[in-house]
Amino acid sequence: MTPPMTPPTNEPFDVLTMGRIGVDLYPLQTGVGLAEVETFGKFLGGSPTNVAVAAARLGRTAALISRTGQDPFGDYCHQALKGFGVDDRWVTPVASEPTPVTFCEIFPPDDFPLYFYRRPKAPDLHIRPEELDLDAVRAARVLWVTGTGLCEEPSRAATLAAVAARGGSTDRTATVFDLDWRPMFWGEGGKESADGRANARALYREVLAHATVAVGNVAECEVATGVRAPRECAEALLDAGVELAVVKQGPKGVLALHRDGTSAELPPHPVEVVNGLGAGDAFGGALCHGLLAGWELERIVRYANAAGALVASRLACSSAMPTAAEVDDLLGR
Ligand SMILES: Nc1ncnc2c1ncn2[C@@H]1O[C@H](COP(=O)(O)OP(=O)(O)OP(=O)(O)O)[C@@H](O)[C@H]1O
Ligand SMILES: O=C(O)C[C@@H](O)[C@H](O)C(=O)CO
């Protein structure tokens, strides 16, 4: 495991992520539905949590803003964050809610349904704007927020406050908006609704006006922009305010478009897929790493593709995040 890493006193974090945390309970049998699964592995989970772990694995200082239940799974989340070298000082308990658990089914190469247990309300949706350490939020070199953080109050107000606090900065690397569309969190009783989608789009527009980078798969870009063709999505995201738009197309590759006119369009790195879940988070952690390093766009996308591919070739999400040596190795460096 990565040793805990905290920046020297008063130094900002390289990567500060905000949003979901929980426990992934993933089947140890693949190709069968949950009704048939007999044993599960326990892993730290939650997409922005995984992004922080991915960045830490690549040698970056990373912290998370989130909330768990006040229960043994909450203790596990803290223990696991520390083990991965992600600072947990802004992960606080909510006494009234259980720590969420997430199951999945594994049907390689491309079918990995997720089953979220986040009711009545996930602790991370209780992140409050008045409890944010806005100095740390402003100072972080990369701030990473997600679409799911907008689905309910008070997390919605907290997410908007965090991105607004970063407005007008020139000395930070990026404010990243992961478009992260999970329809079941936006409708009544966990069912997707047209209203949910329309509400999400309006809120996504608010965040895009403050963010400098937007990243999402095609379905997520469609929620944000109303269009589906990758180049149109990227252009619409630039029009909405960001400097860099990254459209992930799973097996079809990635398109990244920068406001300065540079672009990169690359195929995925071929691997034998075990579980595609978490690939997007590995991609995200590597994207942060490349932006922090100041690499040119094509190098960043190539690197993030390789990190995503490595996680797609492994069962878990957080504990599967690659080291820089593993990414370099896959890229043949
Ligand atoms: N089957 C695959 N083979 C190779 N690379 C992959 C594969 N699946 C994903 N990747 C890599 O990971 C990146 C992100 O994957 P994907 O497009 O599935 O993101 P996502 O929908 O955000 O995923 P997640 O399930 O983690 O939320 C891809 O752009 C690609 O670089
Ligand atoms: O929060 C999620 O998106 C699900 C996670 O628990 C899981 O780790 C995953 O699939 C990450 O993409």
UniProtKB/TrEMBL annotation:
Tagged with keyword rRNA-binding: no
Record keywords, A-Z: ATP-binding, Kinase, Nucleotide-binding, Transferase
Domain Carbohydrate kinase PfkB: 15-323
A Pfam family it matches: PfkB
Spans traversing the lipid bilayer: none
GO molecular function, one term: 5-dehydro-2-deoxygluconokinase activity
Protease keyword on record: no
EC number(s) reported in the record: 2.7.1.92
NCBIfam families: myo_inos_iolC_N
Similarity comment text for this entry: Belongs to the carbohydrate kinase PfkB family.
Protein name: 5-dehydro-2-deoxygluconokinase
Organism of origin: Streptomyces gossypii
Gene name tied to this protein: iolC
